[in-house]
Every structure is written in structure tokens, then in C-alpha cells.
Amino acid sequence: MAGHSKWANIKHKKERTDAKRGKIFTKIGREIAVAVKEGGPDPAANAKLRDVIAKAKANNLPNDNITRSIKKASGELGSINFESVVYEGYGAGGVAVIVEALTDNRNRTASEVRHGFDKHGGSLGATGCVNWMFEHKGVLVVENVDDINEDELLMAALEAGADDVSGDDDAYEITTDAAAFSAVHEALETAGYRFLLAEIQMVPENTVALDEEKMDSVQKMLDALEDSDDVQNVYHNAVM
User: Fold this and answer.
1) Beta strand pairing status for 83-90 and 123-124?
2) Which of 35, 157, 186, 220 would be a feasible disulfide site paired with 49, CB 3.0-4.6 Å?
3) pLDDT value at position 17?
4) Total domain count for the chain?
5) What is the DSSP string of 177-208?
6) Domain membership flag for residue 211
7) Are residues 128 and 209 in the same domain?
8) What CATH number has the domain bearing residue 147?
9) Among 47, 79, 111, residue at a domain's last position
10) pLDDT tens for each residue of 128-145
11) Is the pTM of this model over 0.85?
12) H or E segment to which residue 157 belongs
């Protein structure tokens, strides 16, 4: 097992997610709708939809809800006008932040995102100002339970095309190239592994440690950004 697991960051995000389950389901439903619009309702032929379904399952979205979201999107494509928008900026202490949104009103979303940055000591930047600090990576997290054999998981992940597997007392984190995410997820799911998290993320190449005051400001900013209905994902390089 190489490297140090980033599960602490992911776990912190997941704990916040668990407290906002209904909103998360709504956001994933929006992602499913956009994926269906762009590539059709068949996951076998639509890689983006397949990846969103993996994310939905890891967030415990019931299969009935997933199927219903796909059918709804298939029948109402003409009324779906969401577009993808990405914002970049900085939080307290120079923390790099990327905000991904799906919106039907760019002005509203831009205003909400800017307010989230400004209110908590951050600043919205120009396109490309922090993007270079991140890589698109597939991230899968498997809970470290007694019946998991570490060596078997490592071999299964690497043979399926994963880049790295790291672990600690709580979980194993598997990282993949974005293009290999679906194949690795499918292979491990078929092998019987269940995921605490499975999605393509913007993963920082380097992280920033903060003092307690700046940490508090950054956390409040992240919470404010994630509270926006239009915001799908918020990525940062702070050690939380």
C-alpha cells in the first residue's frame, strides 16, 4: 500500500453529506439528467451516466430512485436546460478551490458562488487560476472491515487498472486515471467490494495546512458553497 490515505478529508466531506442527504439526492438526480441528455439513457453506452450511477450507489441512492431519474430525464429532455459551469478561487490561507455547478441561470449561480467566497475571507478568481493544481482522478473508498484481505484488494485494484491503493485503520482508498474509473469500479464491484465513495474528483497535487482560525473560515466557506442548490461539487487542497 503506497502513500497516505486521504480518507480523513473524504470522511469529513461524507459526514457533512450524510447530514444533507435529501439535497445530495437531488443534486445527483440533476447529474443523472444531464448525463442522459448528453449521452442517452443506457449506462452501457453512456460512460458519463455509468460514472454518475456509481456515485449515486456509493451515496446510498436507492436503485428505484436512479431508475426513476433516468426515465424522467428520458421523457423530459426538452425541458432540461442545465449547463455546466466551473468557478475557481481562493480561501483563507491561500487554499485553492474549484466549484462545479449545474445551472439554468448563470447569473444566479455566479452571484451565490461569489457571495460564498467573499463572506468567508475568500476570493473568486479567473478561469484557470487554480485548475492546474488539480488532476481528474477516479476515487473509490472501501471500508476497512475484518473480512477484507489487504493483499487481495491491492491485486484486484491494480489488475483492473488502478494507479494506487492506500489504507489506514478506517478505509482503503483506490485512485485511478479518470478514463479507467469505470473499469476499476466494475471489476471491484463484481469481486464483491462495496464502496463508501466512488466518483471522479479533482484531486489536488499538493495540500495546504492551516491554523485553526483559517481552518474555521475555510470550512464555513465550503459549507456555504455546498449549500447552493446549483453547486454539485467543491474541491480544495486544504488539509481538513
Assistant:
1) antiparallel
2) 35
3) 56
4) 3
5) EGGGHHHHHHHHHHTT--EEEEEEEEEESS-B
6) yes
7) yes
8) 3.30.70.980
9) 79
10) 999 999 999 999 999 888
11) no
12) helix 150-160
